[in-house]
Amino acid sequence: MADGREEEKREGQELQGAVGGEDVVDDPIMEQGAVVLRGYVIERINTEEPGRHVSSEDLGGRSSEQQDPHIKEVVEQMIKITDELNRNAELQRLINQVPDDCAGGIFMKVARSIFADGINWSRVVALCHLAYRLIYKAITSNNQENIRIIISWVLQVFREQLHPWFVQQEGWVSDGWSLIRGISRWRTVAVVASVVLVATFVYYRKTR
């Protein structure tokens, strides 16, 4: 048990890195991922709590980065998908059990389990939604440092686990996202993402 905690501590220390601003601009796919993640967090908060203002700068980005219409379209589709996720009471209960000070090692363990059986957009959306819930907790507790750290964890997953797959999909802003534009399609993606996240949290609880 102690060994597991030490591993989580070491991984958490290793995950202190880029938050997706100027430091990833040399990699367009990583830059897209960072901008999409921040856009998703901002729009998810606008949807759930319109009175709370969060900007790209608050999340380590640039003021104009959300103006790209293609980025806006991807974020819009993610919002539709996760509207369905938010209706899953069991999933919300499990997410709420993740501690506010979740260690990097724990986050990476959960992320690895999300993609253990393969990579697809449903699972990518599930990862972003998990990150959003943790970021939202950090925002509501006014913990700016945790916001940046959680974003850096997600970007590390993008870079170390998902980058080759993103390259195959031609990045985030590609024809691949046209597959989930239809209402029946994004509801299917939402169901899959929900199942993935519930299974992931069950795994997380068993291996703590």
SSE arrangement:
Layout: H1 2-14, H2 28-48, H3 69-85, H4 89-96, H5 104-114, H6 121-140, H7 144-168, H8 183-207
Helix pairs in contact: 1-5, 2-3, 2-6, 2-7, 3-8, 4-8, 5-7, 5-8, 6-7, 6-8
Q: Supply Rg.
A: 16 Å
Order of helices and strands: HHHHHHHH
Percent of residues in β-strands: under 5%
Percent helix range: 55-70%
Shape type:
globular
Structural class: mainly alpha
The pLDDT mean sits at: 74
Termini gap: 9 Å
Count the DSSP helices. 8
Low-confidence segments:
1-25, 178-184
Description:
- This protein is mainly alpha-helical and 208 residues long.
- It is 67% helix and 0% strand.
- It contains eight helices and no strands.
- The chain has helices spanning 2-14, 28-48, 69-85, 89-96, 104-114, 121-140, 144-168, 183-207.
- The longest helix has 25 residues, at 144-168.
- It is globular, with a radius of gyration of 16 Å.
- The model is unreliable at 1-25 and 178-184 (pLDDT under 50).
Please describe the structure with a list of short key phrases separated by commas or semicolons.
208 residues; mainly alpha; 8 helices; disordered N terminus
